[in-house]
Amino acid sequence: MDLLRGGLGPYTILLNLGIALHAIDIFVITTIMPTVVADIGGISFYAWTSMLYMVGTIVGSAAGGHFRARLGTRRGYVWGGLILLVGTVACAIPPDMGTLLAARVLKGIGGGLVIAQSMALISDLYAPSIRTRILATISTTWTVASFFGPGIGGVFAEFEYWRGAFWAQAPFVIAFVLMSWKLIPEKPISETLRQLPWRRLLMLAAGVMSVGLTGQYKDPLASTVLILLAVFLVWITFRRDQASETKLFPSHALSLISPVGLAYWSYFLISITYTTLLIFAPLFLKELHNVTPLLLGYLSLVFSTGWTIGSIAVAGLTGMRERSGSVIGMVFAAVTTVAFTISILSGTITMITVWITLVGFGIGVTNVLMTNYGMGVAREGEEAITAAAMPTIRALGVAFGAAAAGLVANTAGLDEGTSRETIYRVAAWVLGFTALIPALAALVCYRAVSWGWKFRTGR
User: Fold this and answer.
1) What pTM was estimated for this model as a whole?
2) How far apart are the C-alpha atoms of 56 and 63, rounded to whole Å?
């Protein structure tokens, strides 16, 4: 296997361990939260543990390129792991909800730093010809995490010892830090001593907080105002970043006329697609099809499995097949999302399972190909920061996708209750909106690969 040859084996293991540490926590926290609030209180902040972790992740991933440039490849990665370790321990010992929320932010920052620098290392260490294979492997790690994460959280929740879910992660984080120090090749530190761009990071965090707070309001007007405020803050962050000498993002990161900008927009739209698809699907399935909680978890797993299969299926594609595959994947996702919507409204559980798996397959195809594309079209000298900033864009898509789904749902009348008629109407609106996103992403991918391919390096 190419990923294990030529000295790449240890790096492949290390990178997937870093991804797993971040991914498993996302699934663990949702499982143990009922036990957490029963122990230390704070029920009114129930959703904030996930939201603030997302804020921390976005800030950490945005700062990943800076850490790498300032501290060097090895030290930047190790420091990301150390912050993740401190955050993990902090999540295991809080006496109250306020302390836990602060710990979640810290852990998110550590996770974001690890994820961002992992993407940069992939760009550094793996040749373009095998890069899609390591990206497909990472997709498999996410699927494994979606299977084991709830199980790990469930075991500790069952024994009413939720803190153990974090203590159990600590040895693996320690192993990750030690492996990083031993394995990661060191590169020279940037000659320019970079000051942490904390103003831009705080502005970005404020934007994410604004969009995250939309979930606290049922009034569509209030949600719309918060989303617009978030868009403004994020836009100002990117605008100021372009004029700075110490960039968090590559040049023209939001441009629709540059290859990197188009790649970033595809990541953003892909994240919106699966977030809007999955955030309300459990509610629709429960109310319209009487699906049990166990089966709801199973459907999330088959979606992730479809994503992984799609990623593996196209790993190693080159040339025209790689170029067309990214567009076909999103077209396929749009069509199957429509079919999934119809199944939710009037189909069977069997067909719902089939269609949600196929949606995941289409997303997996485009995701891995466009990630490889984005690394390939990076400007000279911006290869590392282009790869490192990818997780930030994806996380922004998750945040805005959740807010958009909530706004559409509330506008469609979700606040009226959960009667079958109301849920049917809300499902039609939310899932109909969702189906438009991959269609738009297909256009972005087509524009990217139709003329941007000539900018690729190493081809």
Assistant:
1) 0.88
2) 11
